[in-house]
Amino acid sequence: MHCIPNLNYIGDHLPSDIEIERLNHTFQGGVKVEFGRLITAMVTPFDEQGNIDWEQTAKLIDYLIDEQKSDALVVCGTTGESPTISDEEKLQLFDFAVKHTSGRCRIIAGTGSNNTAHSIHLTAEAEKLGVDGVLLVVPYYSKPSQEGLYRHFEAIATSTKLPVMLYNVPGRTVISMNTETILRLAQISNITSIKECAALDQVAQVANLAPEGFRVYTGDDAAGLPALAVGAYGIVSVASHLIGEPMKQMVQAHLEGQVAEAAKLHQQLLPVFKGLFECPNPVAVKFALNERGVKVGSVRLPLVPPSEEEAVSIRKLFD
Q: Is the C or the N end of the chain the one with fewer CB within 10 Å?
C-alpha cells in the first residue's frame, strides 16, 4: 500500500515533502495517509474508437503532476466517466495509474456505487493493486435513509485497510448525507476524509465537529476558497486539469494569511470554475484539454461533445 512510506533511506537520499507529510500525518487507528491540498478528479482519455488510450493516459498523469501540481489523482470518479467504464477497465486504470505514478502522487480509486456488495468487491480488488485510498460516493438512485447510508459506508470501510474518502454530491445522487451521519462515519478509523458538495454550512459544521485529523475537501471548484475559509483542508478539483498551478497558489496564499492575494486569485479563476460546468462534466474540461494539446479524446454516450455554441464559450474562458 503506497500510503506506508519506505523508511530505509540510503546515502544522500532525503525524503520528499510529500513523504515527510505522510510520516507526520497519523489518523486514529494508525491509518497513515496524505492526499495533499489539491486533488484532481482525472478524466479518462479515450481514442477515436472510444477505448482507453493508454499512451495518452500516461501523458495526462505526467502533465497533471508536473505542470498542474496535483498532489493526488482520483481515478474513475464521475469526471473519469465511471458510469460508462467497466469493472475490468477500472481495475486496469487503477493498476496503470499506480505503476505509472510510482509514488509521485497519491492514487485514489473510485470504487463506490449504489450496490454495497459490488463496492466491497471493487475496493478489495483496488487494494490488491496498491492504490492509496478509495472514493465512495453516496448511493445514487436507491435513495437510502441516513441509517442506510451509514451501514453502506460502514460495511465497505470495515472490509478494507485503505483510507476512505466519502463523497457527498446531492446534485447527482438526489439525497444528501447529513452532518450527523458524516460525524458518525468519521469515528470509523479508516474513514479519513470527505469530498463535500453540499452547502457551505455543512462543510463548516463537519470541519468543526469531526475528530482531529478528519479532513474535509470541497468538490466544488467555485467554492474552493470559501470552503477553505470555513475549515476545509483542500479541493478535489476538475479545473485543476487546466489551472492547477494558480489554484495551488491560491491555497498557499490562504494558508499564509494573505487574504487579499487569495481573494484576487479566486476572482481571476472564478470564470473558469463556473464555465467548465456550463455543459455536463467532463464534456467541457475534455474539450479544453484537447484544445490545449493534451489529447484526451471525446466522451462516451450518453454524454456528447459540446455544441458549437458551447465550444465557443469554452474557448473564451482561456482567451
A: C
